[in-house]
Fold:
Amino acid sequence: MLRKFLFFLIFSLFLINTNILYSQPNISKTFTNIIIYEQPRKTPLIQVNDKKGKTIIFSDFSSKITLVNFWATWCAPCKKEMPKLDKLVSILGKKQVSVLAINIENISYSKAKAFLDNLKVKNFDTFFDPKLKLVRELTLKGVPTTLILNEKGYEIARILGDLNFEDKKFIEWIKML
Structure:
């Protein structure tokens, strides 16, 4: 009798666990360029330059998720993903997700702003890392690269290369974070 009960208990736990795994999108298999960390990683102090060249420290993690996107005007994949990143903010709202776009070039704000305006980006502005200090501290390998930070400012995932931020599976995954 005890064996049957234990077998039933183990089998039930197996079914429950399997059901939980299959009911959630496995984002790293759907998108092979997303690295998800088992433990959130502490990020370095995010110091960037604003449109006037003044150094600011980003510490506003009031949204549930912050996407820190590193980009450049010469980057074709960046140009492709920027409107989709903007649309993600429209879909989820600024309380759910915010974007910190960081241009890695040594260019003027007006050139970067014109680039974003041409793409009709409205939900975020750009900041700059002209000396690539943050790029080096985060050991970025190229652009675009997007860090996904939780509400405490810890990196929970990293996207290497461009991503379709409008993809329904990605949106559902972000909502679950």
